[in-house]
Design a protein that fits this description.
Jelly Rolls, 2 domains, 6-stranded antiparallel β-barrel, 21 strands
Length: about 350
């Protein structure tokens, strides 16, 4: 049963349903907006081993990349990703939408909301057959409809209220769902840790451009922590390659201007690697020094890099011969990987 989204709240809800493509899987997700950021909720197995997935909206179809993290307990088929780009405009639902509870019991009439590749919304009638503390099960009630491959991640609704996310097809017409209470509690706890980054000078922090775009001429000359391998050193930060290290303590990386004259610095852009197996930095501070020896450093900006791996820090324009970027924490315990740092 393919239907156009109804006007009003139905249209709003339908816009939050998205289709996901990763390296080896297809599925669905659901958008949530919080603290100025757009997040996509999806099953862990849909992301698979990919840190990056592509998110497709409903009609008219647009797409954006999302960087996925799986911070939840091992047995929970749940993941979350931060996204930027064209799909952000569809991202309007807040945390309250997934903060409800399942009211329908066994026999309750509900529907599964899916998205075709064309962007059309499908609403599949279902009936709840079983509920427990963490999950619920439901079966398709319309003859001829099935839970085809790619249904994972689609949300189950009672009216306009989401009550679960499908993670497993038990038969072609029966599915198992994570209850909305579990999704809401875990997602809220995770993304509430994501504070909006603020520069030390009070300027807004964002990442509107790629951090390796042409900027001021600085070179990385030293770092407190050694690279994982000789070819993954800090010198790569202003050239090809990445800098990878185990964050055993805060890592202060020193950059020196090329040439004799000081540079006028107002922005620092940082991009984490999207390679598998690396953590994204989190808390970052930047200091600058105008003296030739770089011994009189003063604060310039600080901020929090989101899980999408991009951050721009802005401060009052200042003279700088040295810039010190300190990575203080990361989003998980894997080695940290940084692709580029640029100065503007």
């Amino acid at each position: 049963m393919t239907v156009a989204a109804a006007a009003g709240n139905g249209t709003f809800i339908a816009a939050q349903t998205v289709r996901i493509e990763s390296a080896g899987e297809t599925g669905h997700g659901f958008l949530i907006h919080h603290a100025g950021l757009c997040w996509v909720i999806l099953p862990r197995h849909v992301a698979g081993d990919s840190r990056r997935v592509t998110v497709f909206s409903g009609a008219p179809v647009v797409h954006s990349p999302a960087l996925i993290e799986t911070p939840f307990w091992e047995g929970m088929d749940l993941a979350i990703g931060q996204l930027r780009g064209a799909v952000e405009e569809r991202c309007t639902a807040g945390l309250p939408l997934i903060s409800g509870e399942v009211r329908a019991g066994t026999g309750g009439e509900v529907h599964l909301q899916r998205l075709r590749s064309s962007g059309e919304v499908e609403r599949i009638p279902m009936q709840i057959t079983r509920t427990d503390y963490l999950t619920l099960e439901a079966m398709v009630t319309k003859p001829g409809e099935e839970l085809f491959k790619g249904s994972s991640g689609a949300f189950l609704f009672e009216g306009d209220r989401p009550i679960g996310m499908i993670t497993e097809a038990l038969t072609p017409t029966e599915g198992r769902f994570i209850r909305i209470e579990e999704i809401g509690q875990n997602i809220a706890r995770r993304i509430s840790r994501q504070a909006a980054p603020v520069a030390a000078g009070g300027g807004a922090v964002s990442a509107p451009e790629a951090p390796d775009s042409v900027g001021l001429a600085f070179e990385a000359v030293s770092a407190i922590l050694p690279p994982l391998t000789p070819d993954q050193g800090e010198a790569n930060l202003t050239g090809p390659g990445l800098y990878a290290f185990s964050l055993s303590r805060p890592n202060r990386i020193a950059f020196r201007v090329r040439g004799e004259a000081a540079a006028i610095l107002s922005r620092v852009r940082i991009r984490a690697t999207d390679e598998e197996g690396f953590a994204v930095p989190r808390d970052i501070t930047v200091e600058v020094a105008a003296d030739g020896a770089g011994q009189r450093a003063r604060p310039f900006a600080m901020g929090v890099m989101g899980p999408d791996g991009t951050l721009e820090l802005t401060g009052a324009a200042t003279s700088a011969r040295w810039v010190y970027v300190t990575i203080r924490s990361a989003w998980d315990e894997a080695p940290v990987g940084i692709d580029a740092v640029s100065f503007h």
